[in-house]
Amino acid sequence: MILCLDIGNTHIFGGVFLENKLQLHFRYNSNSGETSDQYGVFLKSVLRDNGIEPNTIKKIVLCSVVPSIDYSLRAACKKYFNVEPFMLQAGVKTGIKLTNRNPLETGADLIAGAIAATHTHPQKNIIIIDFGTATTIEAISSKKEYLGAAFLPGLRTSMLALQSSAAKLFPVEISKTTTAIGRSTTESIQAGLFFGHIGAIKEIIAQMTKEAFAGEKPITIGTGGFAHLFEHENIFTHLEPDLVLDGMRLVLKMNEK
To answer: How confident is the model at residue 255 (pLDDT cuts 50, 70, 90)?
Structure first.
């Protein structure tokens, strides 16, 4: 079995694959700065709690945008699974041509998503919308060229910014709403977050389509923790919540060959 760990700014998103099939996925707080022992104990526990024996994990893939915890997680993999993890980073085979100005700045999670998207939708122009700590919108050509991206503050990030900057505003549940006119402070924040995100994403997609694809409509893929909220809002044509995990599995396969 293959354990994939996508280390983001807010969560570690984990998945276990048997062959090509995802058997389990889970989330864990990545802000805690824990030790290798704490990570190792958690990983073994979550596997056993879901009926997977830790000794069946033969390969581990790491994809990280949080360098400060990479060492602890690598050490946990070695100590608790006796596996040297494969790291998705500059220099490994990906099958994606990075055409942006500084390829080394491109997040490993973005590359993993591009790998999976181009594998599932070959020879297609693609835009990926990843709803995480930041909402990222990426453009990939039909020739597997990573053209670049636009970043927005994610839903939770936007909410916390309002809370910290406005004395009378407070955290709310992030949810889909049906009306843009809030009749309470909670409803007003929720409406702004939800419809503001829809408007910004649609405009960015429209601009990217003109700039990169000469107006030809691309495949659009929604992924990440909040993607399900926008499934029926005509932002994306495909909902693929495990896109990054699948890309990690695929990049391991490429580099084994």
So the answer is: very high
pTM of the model: 0.92
Q: Is 109 a catalytic residue?
A: yes
Residue type, position 99, single letter: T
d(CA 140, CA 145): 5
CATH topology (fold) of 2-87:
Nucleotidyltransferase; domain 5 (3.30.420)
> Angle of helix 243-256 relative to helix 108-120, nearest 10 degrees?
90
Domain layout of the chain by residue ranges:
2-87, 97-248
Residue 224 corresponds to which tokens in the numbers above?
């990440």
CATH number of 97-248: 3.30.420.40
Contact status, residue 8 vs residue 225, Cβ threshold 8 Å: no
Tokens of 255: 């580099």
- Output helix, strand, coil percentages for the chain, rounded to the nearest 5: 40, 25, 35
Checking if the pLDDT of 257 tops 80, the result is no
Q: pLDDT: is 215 or 30 the higher one? A: 215
Residues 51-66: tens digit of each pLDDT:
999 999 999 999 999 8
Mean pLDDT, to the nearest integer, of 103-130? 94
**What is the Cα–Cα distance from 256 to 188, expressed in whole angstroms?**
51
Q: What percent of the chain has pLDDT over 90?
A: 81
Check 6, 109, 242, 246 and give the catalytic one.
109
Question: Are the folds of 2-87 and 97-248 the same?
Answer: yes
